[in-house]
Amino acid sequence: MNIRPIVYKWICYYNDGTELHQYTHGQPNSFNKINQDKLIKFVLTPFTYEEEKEINKDKIHVKSVSFLPTFTLNLIDDRRLIYYRQNFIQTEEFHFCKDCNTEFQYNSSMEFHSQYPSPICPNCKSHDYFYCNRCDKKYDFEQTSNGLCPTCKGHLQRNRITSNRSSREKRWIDYIIGYQETISGRNSKFLLNIKETGDSEII
Amino acid sequence: MVATIVIEQVTSAAPGTFHTRDSNAVADKSGTRYMTSDQYDSSLTTYPIPIPTAGNGISGSYWVTHCLNCTVAPDTYIKDVKYYQTWTTSPNSDWSLAGAGWAGEGIGPGLYIGVSSATIADAKILTQGFPSGNYDLAEGTEGVFGYRISTATNGHAFYLGAVSPASGGMVSITHFDSLENAIMVQSGQALGAATGRTYCIVTQVLVGSGATAGNKEDKTATWTYTEA
User: Fold this and answer.
1) Which letter, b or e, does each residue of B112-122 get, where b requires 16 or more Cβ atoms within 10 Å of its Cβ?
2) A15 domain residue, yes or no
3) Tens-digit pLDDT profile for chain B (228 aa)?
4) Residue A88 is nearest to which of B72, B193, B224, comparing CB atoms?
5) Is residue A2 included in any domain, yes or no?
6) Dihedral of the CA atoms A85, A91, A97, A102 (nearest 10)?
7) Would you call A85 and B226 a contact, using CB atoms and an 8 Å cutoff?
8) Which residue, A8, A134, A141, B33, could crosslink B42 as a Cys pair with Cβ 3.0–4.6 Å?
């Protein structure tokens, strides 16, 4: 999936009683449309299920997570709104053990088996091995005779149990909301980092 | 709408072929393997990086080019594209690339990234990537070594004139290990409400004599950008 659905929408409240919503009838409004001069309150709130259905007509763009908390920012005096989404795309590699069907990440605290680099599955301790079809025997690399069967000298088959490697993407979004204001001639910022879970911290 | 962004790896002669790295658990379409060839299929086990014998300098992979491609435009913008990698200690230690390099080369084994600023501090706030139009094919001797990003004659064209702190256009990735320390690939607005590619990065592994052979441990790379 090449998109991370957003779980929060913004609503702007103006000093003349009007509002601007991030989505109007399922269509997005650009952040540039926000009139900062009239803005008195900025709200981040989860989508309703009806909104999710309306917006996601062609593709999943948003997700309704109704239990998320709502965040309200009052923009008094000369406070200027800051809002953006910090997107993360993380590529993570892992191995998959064909014996116990468990995935694991190989790191420096884990073992390699024999000279042939195959990580040992932390779950079932399996690893790659060499197999002689003629003798029906398994061998580790050191037990082979230059890669040949030590008994019949026939060619061996390497059975890849744990050495196959894959990657996957993880995506997540932090919602950054805050304001900047001029205090004693100096620009100062207040920023709150809101996770997709609704947890938040001042940054 | 919410932007659709994919990671791409670029190979082949300029203007390059852009390969989307979006298929989870499909090895030839995801992840990156550093090889001594211009390949994008990370499931290949051919073209490993040979370990040089003592006194014969440092060997290296072909450099690898990555960028982000926005296939569905954001509502307003994509800004401040950054990149970082997570290591237990460093590529040199975690991957046992080991050993000192050849002193005359002025650079040790490790994983390097192309930069155009003179200090690490600047590399975190000023643009270090290059437009996809400046893509430069990775070359070298297949199965033996790749040209250094910073090599004067065969290096990456975009970074040849760079004034980098240590090695003329490339620094260790260990400087960029978290969001707070990420390298700034493209500062400011990368894309408006439009599709297109962000700037690219180029990375490369250098291996010293005394390195250990074999598959190296799994690692994590992260792209991040702001959107509105």
Assistant:
1) bbbbbbeebee
2) yes
3) 889 999 999 999 999 999 988 655 455 567 788 999 999 887 777 899 999 887 777 889 999 999 999 999 999 999 999 999 988 788 888 888 875 555 555 678 889 999 988 889 999 999 999 999 999 999 999 999 999 898 878 889 898 765 544 445 888 899 999 999 999 999 999 999 999 999 999 999 999 888 888 777 778 899 999 999
4) B224
5) no
6) -10
7) yes
8) B33
Please say whether the beta carbons of A68 and A198 come within 8 A. yes
Whether B5 sits inside 8 A of A87 (CB atoms) is yes
Task: Give yes or no for a contact between A177 and A71, defined as CB atoms under 8 angstroms apart.
Answer: yes
In a domain, A18, yes or no: yes
Instruction: Say whether both A21 and A44 belong to one domain.
Output: yes
- Is B28's Cβ below 8 Å from some Cβ in A? no
Q: Do A28 and B75 touch (CB under 8 A)?
A: yes
**Is the CB of residue A26 less than 8 Å away from at least one CB of chain B?**
no
Q: Does A168 touch chain B (CB under 8 A)?
A: yes
A146 plus A177 within the same structural domain:
no
Domain ranges of chain B: 4-227
Dihedral in degrees, nearest 10, Cα atoms A140, A144, A150, A152 = 90
Residues of B in contact with A32 (CB under 8 A): 76
Angstrom distance (rounded) from CA B148 to CA B102:
14
B75–A30: do the CB atoms touch at under 8 Å? yes
Chain-chain contact of A87 with B225 (C-beta, under 8 angstroms): yes
Beta strands in B12-63, from DSSP E residues, in sequence order: 17-20, 59-60
Q: Do B88 and A108 touch (CB under 8 A)?
A: yes
> In Å, how far is A168's CA from the nearest CA of chain B?
4
Chain A positions in Cβ-Cβ contact with residue B173 (cut-off 8 Å): none
CB-hemisphere CA count at 13 Å for B48? 10
Number of domains chain A contains: 2
